[in-house]
Amino acid sequence: MSAIAVKFKQKILIGFLLSYIIILLLPLIIGSIVYKETLRIVEEDARQTNLSLLEQSKDVLDKNLADVNALVIQLAMNSQVNELVNLNRELKNTDTYKVMSVSKDLKPYLVANSFIKTFYIYIKRPNIILSPNAAYLKPDFFYGKSFKYIEEEIFANHEKLLEKRFDKSCFPAMPIIIEGKQHSVVTYVQSIPFTDYGDIKGAITVLIDESQFNKLLMRLYIGDSGWAYIMDKDGRVITSVSNKANGIEYVKDIFLQDRGYLDCEISGEKMTVSYTTSSSTGWKYVAVVPTNVVMAKAKYIKGVTLGITVAILFLGLMAACFLAYRKSKPIKEIITVIKDNIGEDTYSHMNEYDFVRGHISKLVDSNKSLKDTIQQQLPMLKSAFMDRLLKGEFSSSEEVQAFLGHTQIIIKGEIFIVMVLHIGEYGNFLTKDILEEISIKRIVIRNYLEKAVGNIGQLQNIDEDKLALLLGFASSDKQSFKKYVGDFVEEIYSELHNQYHIDVFFTIGGIYDNLIDVYRSFNDARYVQTHRQMDCNEKAVWYEDLPKDNEAYYYPIDTELRIINKVKAGCEDEVKKSFDVIYEENFIKRKLSYAMRQQLLTEIRGTVIKLFETIKTCDSDLIKGIELKIEKLDFSKDIYYAYNYLKESCLNICKVVNERKKSFNYQLAGKIMDYINASYMNQDICLISVAEKFKLSETYLSHFFKEQTGENFFHYIEKLRQQEAQKLLSQTSLSIDKIAECVGYSSSDTFRKAFNRFSGMNPVSYRSLMKDRAILS
Asked: What is the Cα–Cα distance from 544 to 525, expressed in whole angstroms?
């Protein structure tokens, strides 16, 4: 490889690679900025979540404590309780029933508030304790047996309640024994009466189950090593919750505001403290959570984002390399091709794009030149096509149409006719001056006729003094066409005679309904020429107007060559058609003598013998048998039998030729089908790749596949893929994307569209339907 080519290829690859890397870095930079902002919002949200839960817990407890206050007020305002509080004497026997009645009336107060475990009302005189469940006429018995704090001495007996005045006082949770069972309660005490002056006549004690507080605190996410607690305004911890096995540390004197959060270090561990303060009680609600727990979601997002970024960066670089190579490869190949056709140093100073641009400009110029050359050659192509058409060398109408498109010839019509225009009567003696005169007249006639016929016909030179004119007619009405041709001939004759002083006459062949048969019309016109009376003054002589009782048989050399060519090609229909024409011309339209018929058959046998010479390599027993019989064929017995036998012999040779072709085609078709059946799941399989594999052209492979299988190439591959997809959907649990990949589709969207087109439903519905059928069966 030259230094120029290597240099260009490296520059192209690096250029594309840098472009893709820059495109890749732009979203990564923007993504990193968005990521940092997202991380900040997530961290803030994580802190706000615990703070919000603390706020909710505070609001619920404030409400419940307000309900406790309301209960205490209702108890203090109760008329029966007030009557006992103001009794100010010892109980008499008659008061016992009254005390029990008051105790019984207190029960509804407890039922109405689920936050409260129980409450007690101590009345100094007459020295009794009332509860929703009982009345204790001997307080000492109550404190000794029914009610006892395990650690707190302040409530050891009823005298302690009278030592000082309590106003909505709450005491931290402490263990207590009630009726022989241990509980943990928060104690609320209110002295009665509520006024700050005068003697204390008693106290209302409300016991709140600590679990009511803990239920709210447990809603906070504190992790395995965090804790939460409630602290009153004096710094006493009312209650706390924790998952730690080794106790907790209470944060007290670092709160600068009523609510918020802060980061600190406790016992060597970074902790995030969230707190809020009740405006009604002054209590602080505090959650102490390890910072790594609070930031767990942020860390997860950070880890996932980092992983995705690294993966995207890696895949992006791989994709950039792949795309850079893929995009630069065509340019590299173009440069290599160009380089192989120029000198080494011709464009060493150019960059790759200028290099390619310069040569593309040259290629465009060359293409224009080639088109101009082709345009110049077009008249020759048209002449060659018309020559083949008039000689009957085309094997099918499709082939004729293909050549019409290639040569840009337009011939419109449903029925066609060929007429031969003869320039004067010059005989066989032609001098130089006569030839020059004929040439000038032919040019004048061509120019005039080309304008006259337009798109309905074509001209072709056939001899120095003759032109063939092919005409088409839009209708299939032969009588109308014949009248049109007669008028057309009259117009041409008059114009050429009157304006240019040129005398012409026409011989006109038969009318045929297919372009592939116009050679017969041409042969008819030529036949008219040989049988036209020299003293005939008609401007035009029609083939069908000739007398058919002459002695000459019809078997022109063009017909013989056509039979030979069609037999070699294996075209049975065309051979049969040619023999039918010979039969019609010689045995129906003409009255041939016995000797002339024998001569015709002898000439046809000569044609068949020529065919045997062209297929010497064929070892068919059928051919050998025909060849022996043809040589011994006796025309003196049954002429019609001999004619039909010659015809059947040609058709049998066609069959042998076709068998040989089919044998080769069958083997080739088998190889192609085996290859497709084994490779249809490959995403790259297509008409081009299969054609390259078997060294065929794409057009030929497409037609060959359709001819051998009756199916379109692409439809056949799609059918194989869809049938396999149906099998995988009904028999496996593979995902739709995986099935699409397994059967050869580049994307699941393409697969879904193709499946819906093939099966009439989407893949998910088909799988569901197959499962339902399996269950029912």
From this structure: 10
pTM attached to this predicted model: 0.41
Report DSSP state, residue 585: I
Secondary structure (H, E, C), 465-522:
CEEEEEEEECCCCHHHHHHHHHHHHHHHHHHHHHHCCCCEEEEECCCECCHHHHHHHH
**CB burial of residue 592 (10 Å; 0-12, 13-18, 19+):** buried
Structure tokens at 547: 């007398």
Starting at the edge strand that comes first in sequence, how are the strands of the sheet with 284-290 ordered? 237-242, 227-231, 284-290, 269-277, 260-266
User: Which segment, 146-160, 451-465, 520-534, is predicted with the most confidence on average?
Assistant: 451-465
Tell me if 445 sits within 8 A of 423, measured CB to CB: yes
Q: Which amino acid is at 617?
A: T
Residue 416: per-residue pLDDT: 92
Helix ranges (H only) for 162-278 are 210-217
CB atoms within 10 A of CB 61: 24
The Cα diameter of the chain in Å comes to 174
The answer to whether the CB of 85 falls within 8 A of the CB of 202 is yes
pLDDT tens-digit series, residues 710-720: 788 888 888 88
Q: Is 420:521 a contact under the CB 8 Å cutoff?
A: no
Residue 443: half-sphere exposure toward Cβ, Cα within 13 Å: 5
Q: How far apart are the first and last CA of the chain?
A: 68
Give the number of C-alpha atoms closer than 13 A to the C-alpha of residue 45, restricted to the C-beta side: 9
The whole-angstrom separation of Cα 675 and Cα 677 is: 6
From residue 363, alpha-carbon distances to 80, 265, 359, 370 in Å are 118, 78, 6, 10
What is the DSSP code string of 112-158? T-TTEEEEEEEETTTTEEE-SS-EES-HHHIIIIIEEESS-STTSSG
CA–CA separation, 491 and 451 (whole Å):
13
Q: Encoding tokens for residue 762? A: 């989407």
Strands (E), 399-478: 415-423, 457-463, 466-473
Tokens at 222, concatenated: 């504190």
- DSSP secondary structure string, 284-297? EEEEEEEHHHHTHH
Sign of CA dihedral 126, 131, 133, 136: negative
Q: Mean pLDDT, to the nearest integer, of 245-258? A: 72
pLDDT, tens digit (0-9, with 9 covering 90-100), for 569-582: 778 888 888 888 88
Parallel/antiparallel/unpaired status of strands 169-178 and 147-149: antiparallel
Burial class (CB in 10 A: 0-12, 13-18, 19+), 33: exposed
- Please check whether residue 363 is in contact with residue 392, taking contact to mean a CB–CB distance below 8 angstroms: no
Q: Which of 94-103, 419-428, 440-449, 460-469 has the lowest mean pLDDT?
A: 419-428
Contact 241, 219 (CB under 8 A): no
**Alpha-carbon span 558 to 574, nearest angstrom:** 14
Query: Where do the DSSP E strands lie in 537-633?
Result: 540-542
